[in-house]
Every structure is written in C-alpha cells, then in structure tokens.
C-alpha cells in the first residue's frame, strides 16, 4: 500500500467519511441527548432537583468546552488577528484550522465570528459577508459555485437563478468579489472539510478562490477547517503556492488537566437560580466525593484512554446527568458507571448475544475453517463443515441447506460476516467468498453469554481437532 | 438629439430648486429631456457668463434625500419624450437605474448599458425626424449631430474627460481671485490646512516648513482651535471659512457644481452640448459629511445628463487618490475623487484602479480620430456606432422574465451589481500604515504590486521582444507562439502582465501599433472547448456556443480579406495554465496553435504552464506548431529572493538584513517560490509585532521612566521571528499531535511499529494489530481494551491521517498502514511520560 497514491487516498477519504457518518448516527451521546430532550421538554421543571439538572444539562450543551481546551484562547486570538487584518487593512488571507475531531475548531471559529460581527456591526452591518461551504455537501465545482452565488445573493438581497451555468456563476463570483472589495466589504469563505475540496479533480474551486486573492480586486478570507493533518499537502502545486501556508493546530487537552476541570463542570454555584442552599451544598459535596473516589478515577482513566476530545467527555458527563435518580437528586457512582457503559457499547458482543443456534453453528464452522488455514470460504464450504459435525455427532440441530442459507443471509445482513471483495457478485450467493468479522475471542465470549448455545457447540469451538 | 423647431410647443418642467424668475427669462425653443432648460442664445460668446445661461442638474440629485423615490421619467421628460414610444421611456428609466454615468473606461460600462445609451441617441432623432418632416425639409445628413473630441473656446480647450465647474444659478460669479497666503496675502506655492483648507506659504507657516508635510497638517489657527475647542477664536475662524470666495469654496458651499465632460457634440443648429457626469460634495450624499472625509473630496455619481456648453464656468481638476497625492495639492481647483456614489442606493464604491486596464483590453485600438469642430466624418462614426449597437439590442433586451433579473446570470449581472456598495465609507479606509511593521506588512502582501519586477530582466526582454515583434510586424513576425514554463510562484504571469502594461503605455503615447489582448486562464474555463466561446466573445462581443464559436473563429482566421477595419489589429492571446486544455484528442490545443500559423490570422499566442516539457508530451503535430520559442522561468535563487524582498522593503526599516537572507535561503532551498517567501516574511513581521507589543507592555509595567530606546534592537524583525514563522508554516503538525494522543492511541501506534518490525510488511490488518496490542499490554501489566474500542481508536487515528486505514466496518480484515516514517513516531513517543513502557518497543 503506497501512501501517496491518489486513488488510494481517495478511497480512504470516502471510507473515513463512512466512519464518521456512522459515528454520528450511532453515537450514544447523540441518542441520549435526543431522548432526554424529548422526555423533559413538556414537563416544566419546578422542583429543585429538576432545576439543578436543567442547569447542568444546559451548561454541558452550550459549548462549555472553551475552558477545557488548553490553547483555545491562543488560537482564538490568532483567528481574530487574521480577521482584523483582513477587515481593517483589506489584506487577503487564507488559513487552515487543523486538529482531531471534537477539539473545538468550529466552535472557536464561531466564537471569533460572533465577536467580529459585533464589532463590525457598529460601523455598518454589511461590512462582512459569509459563505459557508461543506466538502460533504458541495462535492463538485458546479454545485460549490452555485452555492457561493446563492449565498452571496442572499447576503446582498439579489435575485438568484438556480439555472445559471457554471460560467455565469464563476463570473458572478469574480465580479462580486471585485465589487465587494471596492466597497470595503470582506467576503469570508468558510470551507468545512477542506480536505474533500482538495480531493476534487483539478481543484478548480480552490484555485479560483486563491487566485483571485492574489489580485487587488478582492478582499477575502478563506478559512479551511479539516481534521486531516496533511490537508495542505493534498493541494496541487499551483494551488499550494497560492495558499498562504498558515495553519492553526487544535490540540486535544491533556488528561491530567482534565481530571481537575471535569468536576468543576458538575458543581452548582451558590448564587444560581436554585434557592435551596442546603441542597446545593450537599450536591457539590457528594459530587466532589465521587470524583475523589478510586473507582471514579478508574472510570475516568478508561474514558480518557480512548478519547480525550471535549465532545466525548461532555457526552459522558451528559449521560451521567441524565441518569440521576430524581427522587434522590444526587450523583452516585452508578450514574457514571452507567454513562460509561452507554459510551462503551460492545457492539459485536451484543449482536452475538441474540443470534440463533443455527447461526452460531455457522459462525463456529467458519471459525474452524479459518483455523484450518482456509482463507477463503463460501456458503457451500461452510455448510460442508457444518454437516461434518453432525455426521460424527448426531445432534438435534441439523437443518436442511435452504434453512442454513437463510441463516447465512441473516448473518450477512447483521454484518457479522461480509463478502470478501466487498460486494455481492453475479454468481449465486452460496458461491460468493465471505469473511468472518468476529474475532475468536469475541466469538468465545458470545458463545458463553448466549442463552441458547448447546454444550456440544462450545466444545466444538474450543477443540479444533474435535470431530 | 432632440432638435426642435420653434413650431413645437414648449413646456417647462419646473425643477425643484429653480428660482421662479428663470422661467420668465428663458423662453427657449430648445428642450432637453433632463437638463431642464437652456437659452437659445448661441451668439453669446462662451466665457462671458450671461445671466441667463444656467444649467440645472436633474433635481433628483439635488434633493436626493427627499425625492429619491421619484423616477426621472416623471420629473425630467418633457413633451418631446411624450412622443416617443413607451419602450424608449422604459429604457431611459432603466438606464437611470443601472447607473447613468457610463463613464468611458469604467469597467462597469456593460455592453447593455452602452447599448441602451446608443439606442437612445438613435431612436430619438428618428422619431423626431418623422415629425419634423412636415415642418422642415432639410432632413438628412445635415440634421445629425456631430460628435467631437474636443472644443476650443476662448483659447481654452475642452476635451472629453475634462472636469469643469458648472453654474448652478444665473448669479454672477465675479470674483475669481486665487487665494493668497493666510499670513502675507501673496500667492505662490502654498501648503493647505486640512481643516479650513486655507493656504500658507511654507516659510510663513509657524513653525516654518521646509517641504510639504506628509499626512495631515493644520494651520496654526486650527491647531490652537483643536487644542482649545471652546475658546473664543473658534467663531471668528468659522465665519471666515464659510465666506466663499474662490470657485473651490463656492463648490464646497454647494454654490457651484462640478462635472465631468463625457461627450461633446454639436447640434444641428450649431450649438454645443455636452454630457455631464456629476460630482457631489460629501454634504450632498445621504450620510452627509463624515469626519474622515477630506476637505477637497468629491464623489463621482452615476448620474449624468446633457447640458449646453454655456453653463460651464471654468475648468477644474478632479484626481484619483494617487495622482492627488503626487500633485502635492498644487493649484486651487484640484479635487480628490476616490469613490463613486450611487444615488439610487445611496452607497459608496471605490473607483477601481484598473479602469483603464480593462478598457485597454477591449478597445485599446479604437482609433481615436481627433476631430475638430469642422470635421464631418465624426458624425458618421457616431451613427455607425449607434447602428451597430441597435442591431445588437434584441439579443440583450429580452428583459422582464424573472430569470433575467437574477444577479448570477450574465445578461443581468451588471444591473444587479450596482446594488452592492458601502453605505458609509469606513474610517479604516483612510488610515495609513503608520508603524514600520504595518508598512512592511502592506509592502509584503501578495496583492501589493511592486513598481518593477526585479530578477526577471532577461525573460522580460524576451517576452517583450516577442510581443513587440508581433504587434509591429504582424504576420511578418518570426514567431507566432511563445511557450513559458516554470514552477509556481516564479513570476510568469506577472512578467507577461507587466510587458503588456508597458506596451499599453507605449500605445497611449502613440508610438505603438494598435493591438488586442485576450487573457484566458485554463482553470477558469468550464471545459477546454469553452475557450472558443471566450475567445470569440473577446474578439467580437458575441456570446455563442463553442461549436458555433469554433466555426466562426476558423472562418475568421483563415479568411485572407477581412471585412471590418478592426480585424486588422493583431491579437495577442495569453493562455494561463495551458495544461488544463489538454483533452483526449487534443483538438483544442491543436486549433489554438494552428490558427497562428495561418497566413492571415494575425493571432499570436503566449502560453504558460508549469512543466517544461509539455510540448514534448503533446502530439507531434501540436508540438511542431508551438515552435521553438520558449522561455523558462527557473526557481528563484536565494540572492534573487533576497533582492525581491528588499526591493519591496526599500525605505522601511523593519527587517534585520540577516533575517531576510535567512528567510530567502530557507525558501530557495525548498521551492524558490516568491509567494512563499513573501508570505513567510509577512508572518514573521506579525510575530515580531506581537512580540514587541508584549515587550513594551512589560517595559511599561517594569519601569515607567525609561524610554523605549533600550529595546531598539528588538524592534526589528530578527532571525528568531523568521524561524518561528518557518516553524509555524512549514512544520508538519503530526509529531505534536502524536505526543498529545490518548493512551490507547499511543499504544496502538506502538503496536503498529512493533508489528511492522516483526513482520517486515508495511501493511497489516486490524486483527494482527489487535493481537500485538493485547500481547504488549499483557507483558506490561496494562488492562487491554476490547476490540470495539480499539477499532474506534484506530479509525480516529485514520481520520487524522496519522495512519491510513480502510473503513471501520471491515473490522477484522481492515487494512492499516502508518502514514509517517517510524522515526517520527519514535521521536514523538520515545520519551513519553504518560505511558513510559512504550519506549522500549521503539
């Protein structure tokens, strides 16, 4: 595998997005939050406990990461300086905000934007206009340019035509930039997932944006946001030369610092809307005790060993707040344990738990085939292995081939196995080579936890030579 | 245009601001559509102001705050226009909306606008002529207007583009004295106060001045007034200031108008008319005078209308900001005009510097025949032009469908863009870079165009000899194509543009042959074939599909006898990013390079690409047509980069000389890219600026007494700043991020390294990594995480591109690979404090 080959890179990029989308949809935090808001919204929180939980929850949701992030202040100052340079001195700039996901790139940018907008508002509101593009949505040059034209039209209250051609739109962009520069207006382009723009063929959009900024006819700022650290290396030579090479790096916070900061996020302040001072005192006391306990330290340690990004940690705390027993109204260690369990779902084990007996037989057959150094196998070979077991030990779990095939398809659907070449080919399903997606350790655990698994299957699994 | 015989009834439109006596005095047989009236008395010699000769700006401008919603249709049109077709009226209205100014040379001069104007001036005579045929027999060539380039009246020469004062009322303006020195009363070279705009001799000023000071200067009175704003002297000063004496003061007190002559013509009856593009003073704009408006500032408006020559009072001089500064404020009738003011939307817009450049592109060789009053040919040219534009009209006037009002559609773009503009001129626009750091930053910007391009003399000579040869010799020239190659940032495009600019200057000085210049960028084209459309549009002004354009161009270039006169001009086609035009069968490139070789094409191509051997990679038939004329731009050496940077920083004391050398050496070692070097230096200046700010703060807090002299050395950009900038801009961030990874991620990376050492294979699968991971953990008393967690960690590392990995759903068979050399990981994690045991596996 060659790291620099472009086709490979592109493939990775797409897969990376798959990962990400998956994460967003299945993320337990997101589910929790949604569920919580659904349940809580209708009933007005009148009790003291309700108020406290509401307060904590809103604190965790409203971008409180700012003080978790170690270099947020510094980075924000840098972005702000860049803005003022462009807005006041009419100087074109381009910059990349890099960092792992969930480390506050977009959040810092949004906070700076608010500040700049508020400042500019004093002079006159149209001094700044924004164009936001996302690499995921505006995948090709045509739609990206059309989106730019649309947003510029909205900002300047112009009529926008959907059917304008690529050429019309690009000409509109050029003349619009010029007109804006002549009337001292700054156009800010915010490109989310910058790396995907850089993977477009020819990089026409980036070239055109950055090339216009070489001339006096523009007063623009291009901000690229990307989690790929090598995003600027993706640029073509002529585009890279036009890019200013400014980068701001967003680091994840250090685990030691976080240990100190996290409890503070769950402390109720005495001067808040909650009147019951006694409750507040008790609540804070209990919370601090929990955080000092050894078990809590272990939970935190394992949480932070996986992911230290503020988003992840806030999700953890949010889940803990949501599981508070309302009758007691105080944290207990079990809340955090539960939250930990929510965040650390063991997907494979869970799905193995409710697999039918026949499916388990098939999985174990595959495992046996693999341990016999058979790299590639299809349904027919699996069925043969399955049958060989029943030939030697007559069990009551012998099913005909059709039924087995149904079970096999079920496994495919659950993605416990997958086609070796990634997709179904034209030949019948029983001839397609497949791969097992469960490790032997996980399968063993699954067999142990499964309520329906017969003893013979466990034995069969444990002893390879068992016939 | 609207010549009228006395038989026609004449009605006056009462202009909002006109005094009532005017109606009685000017019973005129003539009419204007917008400039409301003028006297019939042509025998009065110009220059002697007669009380009846007045002129009025269209009321809309005057009362802009009150009646701006009124359309000129309602106000300005008299009987004559009533006779016109409705279409004509709408067009006039349209014209007003879309910016009447239509100054020659404004890039905003869209095709449409010029057409509508052209149409107006043709339609009017036509309709009038038909009416007139009953009354006057002399219809024909005599009846037409004569368009003139300049007029000499009373030994004062007025030509197109001149700025003039215009009388507002018939009041006599007797005093025309030039203002003397405030102190001694004599005239001479005066320096002007920025507040009260009165002049003082350099030697009379207190304290005496040696040269005209840069920046703001206040006279002693204003200085004292500023210091003590409540003192009694203020009132006297003010009263003195508001008594207008000179024409300039009259103008600034809105007793006079200023306008620019856009067009001059002679009517059938011999009277002279001109089209006036109005200027307004800051007080007449919607926001009024802003504190940072200069004393002598005017705004060009997009309003213009026709006036008689008699209304001109005297010539004045309105300059752009650059000329204004260099003129040293000499003369009393000099004004500054930096912005254009849109009367309808009440917005300001800077007047683009490139006005002339754009114009030069389109009609650099529009043969400017200098006509005198007696010449009749001009007349025909005028009508010819009008006819031409009339033919084009239907294409551009498919108005009134909602689509055509959209801003991002070509046909209606210009009309819409007028809406964009600043409501107020921001204060910062007037701020000049004060500190050496700020000046250095401004000079190092990529947008700042230097006066000359150093270190490219040889290449420039080659290119300019090619271009001059092409322009002068036409088809007899030796070469038809020039191929320029070089890595990005070596000044290819800039050099060509500079050559073309020099050529244009030469043309303006009338010692060059007419030519056309078409610029096309390969990356701006939708598809390579679209080049035909763009080229054809640039040559003829018609927008057609590329197939049609190809056909027309082919005809045009192979036709030995051109029909039109303009075709004689040689055309220089400049193609940037040529490699983008390569198609599968390379037909576009073939055509582009084939046309110049045809005997009568008069086409010359300058092509730019990055690779030096692009012609060799193309088909042989294209390579042979491209010829052997090539210029290659080598990357800049460090001496050259140093020279480039230091020429930009001349007279700015912001850099240590070693720092410049260091930066240029660094960049030259990597790429020799001038853009990169400039950006690096600019960033270094910013870093130094921030450092100095911190230093001075410290200084202030530490010792309040000591002056800043002690840190003088720190006030320059030094080696350290450059190094910091290099680190920031060119160091890959992965080592830093690796050091900040989570515990699991670090162990994951180490297991990958370990696995790679063990197996010798670069690529592994997740299963193997997981096994290694568990093994490592068990050996070092670490509780291993489960596979699902490990998979998440691997995928998040993949998202940052610390490793390359396939999608996570492939689980066990997911392929993984390190994206950086093992050494980087060892460097980042060897001394790790969080997980100390991983060091031994690296």
UniProtKB/TrEMBL annotation, chain A:
One term under GO cellular component: nuclear origin of replication recognition complex
Keywords of this entry: Chloroplast, DNA replication, DNA-binding, Nucleus, Plastid
Main location: nucleus
UniProt cross-references to Gene3D superfamilies, sorted A to Z: P-loop containing nucleotide triphosphate hydrolases (3.40.50.300)
One example of a Gene Ontology biological process annotation: DNA replication initiation
Pfam short name (any one): ORC4_C
Superkingdom, taxonomy of origin: Eukaryota
GO molecular function: DNA replication origin binding
Domain Origin recognition complex subunit 4 C-terminal intervals: 264-446
Signal peptide positions on this chain: none
SUPFAM superfamilies assigned: P-loop containing nucleoside triphosphate hydrolases
Domain Orc1-like AAA ATPase: 79-217
Subcellular location(s) of the protein: Nucleus
InterPro entries: AAA_16, ORC4, ORC4_C, P-loop_NTPase
Xref: PANTHER family: ORIGIN RECOGNITION COMPLEX SUBUNIT 4
Annotated function: Component of the origin recognition complex (ORC) that binds origins of replication.
Family the UniProt entry places it in: Belongs to the ORC4 family.
Name of the featured protein: Origin of replication complex subunit 4
From TrEMBL, chain B:
Pfam families assigned: AAA (PF00004), AAA_lid_10 (PF17872), BAH (PF01426), PHD (PF00628), WHD_Cdc6 (PF09079)
Tree of life domain: Eukaryota
Oligomer and partners: Component of the origin recognition complex (ORC) composed of at least ORC1, ORC2, ORC3, ORC4, ORC5 and ORC6. ORC is regulated in a cell-cycle and development dependent manner. It is sequentially assembled at the exit from anaphase of mitosis and disassembled as cells enter S phase. Binds unmodified and methylated histone H3.
PROSITE patterns: BAH, ZF_PHD_1, ZF_PHD_2
Family designation: Belongs to the ORC1 family.
CDD domains: AAA (cd00009)
Gene Ontology biological-process annotations: DNA replication initiation; mitotic DNA replication checkpoint signaling
Region annotation Disordered: where it falls in the sequence: 1-58, 89-121, 362-389
Entry keywords, A to Z: ATP-binding, Chloroplast, DNA replication, DNA-binding, Magnesium, Metal-binding, Nucleotide-binding, Nucleus, Plastid, Zinc, Zinc-finger
A single GO cellular-component term on record: nuclear origin of replication recognition complex
Chain ranges of the BAH domain: 235-352
Protein's cellular compartments: Nucleus
Function: Component of the origin recognition complex (ORC) that binds origins of replication. DNA-binding is ATP-dependent, however specific DNA sequences that define origins of replication have not been identified so far. ORC is required to assemble the pre-replication complex necessary to initiate DNA replication.
Main location: nucleus
Chain intervals with Acidic residues compositional bias: 365-381
One term of GO molecular function: ATP hydrolysis activity
Gene3D superfamilies for this protein: 1.10.8.60, 2.30.30.490, P-loop containing nucleotide triphosphate hydrolases (3.40.50.300), Zinc/RING finger domain, C3HC4 (zinc finger) (3.30.40.10)
Keyword Secreted carried by entry: no
Protein name: Origin recognition complex subunit 1
Domain PHD-type: 178-225
Species name: Ceratopteris richardii (Triangle waterfern)
């Amino acid at each position: 595998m060659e790291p620099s080959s472009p086709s490979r890179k592109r493939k990775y990029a797409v897969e990376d997005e798959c990962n990400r989308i998956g994460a967003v949809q299945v993320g337990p935090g997101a589910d929790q939050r949604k569920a919580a808001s659904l349940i809580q919204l209708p009933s007005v929180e009148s009790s003291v406990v309700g108020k406290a939980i509401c307060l904590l929850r809103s604190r965790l949701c409203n971008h409180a990461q700012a003080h978790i992030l170690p270099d947020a202040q510094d980075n924000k100052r840098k972005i702000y300086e860049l803005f003022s340079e462009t807005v006041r001195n009419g100087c074109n700039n381009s910059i990349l905000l890099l960092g792992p996901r969930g480390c506050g790139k977009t959040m810092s940018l949004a906070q700076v934007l608010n500040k700049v907008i508020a400042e500019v508002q004093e002079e006159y509101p149209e001094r700044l206009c924004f164009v936001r593009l996302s690499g995921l949505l505006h995948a090709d040059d045509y739609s990206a340019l059309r989106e730019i034209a649309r947003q510029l039209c909205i900002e300047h209250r112009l009529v926008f035509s959907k059917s304008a051609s690529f050429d019309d739109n690009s000409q509109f962009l050029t003349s619009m930039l010029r007109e804006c520069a002549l009337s001292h207006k700054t156009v800010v382009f915010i490109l989310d997932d910058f790396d995907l723009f850089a993977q477009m063929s020819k990089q026409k959009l980036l070239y055109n944006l950055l090339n216009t900024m070489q001339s006096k006819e523009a007063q623009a700022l291009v901000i690229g946001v990307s989690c790929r650290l090598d995003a600027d290396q993706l640029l073509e030579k002529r585009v890279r030369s036009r890019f200013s090479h400014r980068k701001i790096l967003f680091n994840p916070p250090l685990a030691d610092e976080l240990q100190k900061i996290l409890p503070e996020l769950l402390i109720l302040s005495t001067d808040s809307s909650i009147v019951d001072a006694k409750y507040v005192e008790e609540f804070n006391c209990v919370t601090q005790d929990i955080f000092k306990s050894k078990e809590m330290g272990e939970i935190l340690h394992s949480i932070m060993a996986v992911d230290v990004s503020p988003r992840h940690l806030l999700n953890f705390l949010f889940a803990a707040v949501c599981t508070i027993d309302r009758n007691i109204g105080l944290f207990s260690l079990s809340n955090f344990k539960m939250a930990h369990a929510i965040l650390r779902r063991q997907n494979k084990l869970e799905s193995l738990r409710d697999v039918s007996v026949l499916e388990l037989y098939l999985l174990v057959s595959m495992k046996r085939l693999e341990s016999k150094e058979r790299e590639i196998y299809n349904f027919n070979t699996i069925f043969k292995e399955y049958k060989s077991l029943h030939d030697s030990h007559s069990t009551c779990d012998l099913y005909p081939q059709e039924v087995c095939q149904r079970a096999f398809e079920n496994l495919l659907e659950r993605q416990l196995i997958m086609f070796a070449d990634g997709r179904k080919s034209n030949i019948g399903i029983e001839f397609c080579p497949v791969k097992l997606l469960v490790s032997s350790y996980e399968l063993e655990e699954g067999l142990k936890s499964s309520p329906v698994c017969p003893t013979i299957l466990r034995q069969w699994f444990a002893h390879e030579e068992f016939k | 245009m609207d010549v009228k015989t006395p038989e026609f009834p004449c009605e006056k439109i009462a202009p909002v601001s006109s005094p009532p006596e005017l109606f009685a005095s000017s019973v005129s047989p003539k009419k204007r559509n917008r400039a409301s009236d003028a006297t019939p008395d042509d025998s009065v010699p110009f220059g002697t102001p007669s009380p009846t000769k007045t002129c009025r700006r269209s009321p809309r401008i005057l009362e802009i705050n009150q009646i701006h919603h009124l359309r000129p249709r309602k106000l300005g049109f008299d009987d004559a226009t009533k006779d016109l077709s409705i279409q004509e009226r709408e067009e006039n209205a349209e014209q007003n909306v879309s910016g009447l100014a239509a100054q020659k040379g404004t890039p905003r001069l869209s095709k449409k606008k010029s057409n509508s104007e052209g149409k107006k001036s043709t339609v009017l005579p036509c309709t009038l002529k038909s009416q007139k045929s009953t009354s006057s027999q002399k219809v024909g060539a005599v009846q037409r207007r004569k368009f003139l380039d300049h007029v000499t009246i009373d030994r004062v020469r007025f030509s197109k583009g001149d700025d003039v004062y215009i009388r507002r009322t018939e009041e006599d303006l007797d005093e025309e004295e030039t203002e003397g020195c405030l102190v001694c009363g004599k005239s001479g070279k005066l320096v002007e106060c920025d507040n009260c705009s009165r002049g003082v001799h350099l030697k009379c000023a207190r304290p005496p001045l040696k040269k005209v000071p840069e920046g703001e200067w206040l006279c002693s009175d204003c200085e004292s007034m500023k210091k003590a704003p409540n003192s009694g002297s203020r009132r006297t000063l003010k009263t003195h200031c508001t008594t207008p004496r000179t024409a300039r003061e009259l103008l600034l007190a809105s007793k006079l108008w200023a306008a620019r002559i856009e067009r001059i013509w002679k009517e059938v009856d011999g009277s002279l008319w001109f089209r006036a593009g109005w200027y307004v003073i800051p007080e007449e704009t919607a926001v009024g005078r802003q504190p940072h408006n200069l004393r002598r500032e005017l705004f060009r408006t997009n309003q213009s209308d026709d006036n008689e020559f008699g209304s001109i009072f005297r010539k004045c001089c309105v300059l752009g900001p650059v000329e204004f500064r260099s003129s040293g404020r000499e003369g009393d009738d000099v004004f500054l005009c930096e912005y254009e003011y849109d009367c309808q939307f009440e917005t300001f817009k800077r007047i683009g510097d490139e006005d002339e450049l754009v114009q030069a592109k389109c009609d650099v060789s529009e043969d400017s025949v200098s006509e005198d009053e007696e010449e009749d040919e001009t007349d025909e040219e005028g009508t010819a032009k009008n006819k031409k534009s009339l033919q084009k009209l239907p294409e551009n006037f498919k108005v009134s469908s909602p689509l055509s009002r959209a801003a991002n559609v070509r046909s209606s773009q210009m009309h819409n863009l007028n809406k964009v503009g600043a409501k107020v001129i921001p204060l910062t626009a007037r701020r000049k870079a004060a500190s050496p750091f700020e000046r250095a930053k401004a000079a190092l910007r990529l947008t700042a165009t230097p006066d000359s391009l150093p270190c490219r003399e040889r290449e420039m000579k080659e290119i300019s000899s090619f271009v001059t040869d092409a322009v002068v010799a036409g088809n007899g020239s030796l070469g038809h194509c020039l191929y320029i190659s070089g890595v990005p940032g070596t000044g290819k495009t800039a050099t060509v543009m500079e050559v073309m600019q020099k050529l244009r200057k030469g043309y303006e000085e009338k010692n060059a042959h007419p030519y056309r210049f078409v610029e096309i960028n390969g990356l701006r084209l939708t598809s390579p074939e679209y080049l035909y459309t763009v080229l054809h549009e640039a040559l003829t002004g018609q927008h057609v599909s590329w197939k049609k354009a190809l056909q027309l161009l082919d005809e045009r270039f192979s036709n030995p006898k051109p029909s039109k006169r303009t075709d004689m001009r040689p055309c220089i086609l400049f193609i940037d990013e040529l490699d983008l035009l390569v198609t599968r069968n390379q037909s576009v490139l073939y055509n582009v390079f084939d046309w110049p070789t045809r005997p009568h094409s008069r086409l010359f191509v300058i092509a730019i690409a990055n690779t030096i051997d692009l012609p060799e990679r193309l088909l042989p038939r294209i390579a042979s047509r491209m010829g052997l004329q090539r210029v290659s731009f080598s990357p800049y050496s460090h001496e050259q980069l140093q020279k480039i940077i230091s020429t930009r920083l001349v007279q700015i004391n912001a850099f240590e000389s070693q720092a410049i050398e260091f930066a240029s050496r660094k960049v030259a070692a990597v790429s020799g890219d001038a853009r990169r070097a400039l950006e690096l230096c600019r960033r270094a200046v910013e870093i130094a600026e921030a450092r100095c700010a911190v230093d001075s703060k410290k200084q202030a807090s530490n010792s309040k007494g000591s002056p800043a002299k002690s840190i003088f050395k720190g006030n320059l950009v030094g080696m350290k700043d450059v190094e910091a900038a290099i680190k920031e801009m060119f160091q890959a961030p992965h080592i830093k991020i690796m050091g900040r990874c989570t515990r699991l991620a670090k162990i994951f990376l180490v297991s990958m390294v370990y696995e790679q050492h063990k197996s010798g294979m670069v690529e592994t699968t997740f299963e193997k990594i997981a096994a290694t991971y568990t093994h490592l953990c068990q050996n070092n008393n670490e509780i291993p995480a489960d596979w699902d967690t490990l998979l998440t960690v691997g995928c998040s590392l993949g998202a940052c591109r610390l490793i390359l990995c396939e999608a996570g759903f492939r689980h066990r068979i997911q392929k993984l690979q390190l994206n950086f050399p093992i050494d980087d990981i060892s460097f980042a994690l060897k001394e790790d404090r969080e997980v100390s045991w991983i060091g031994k596996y690296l």
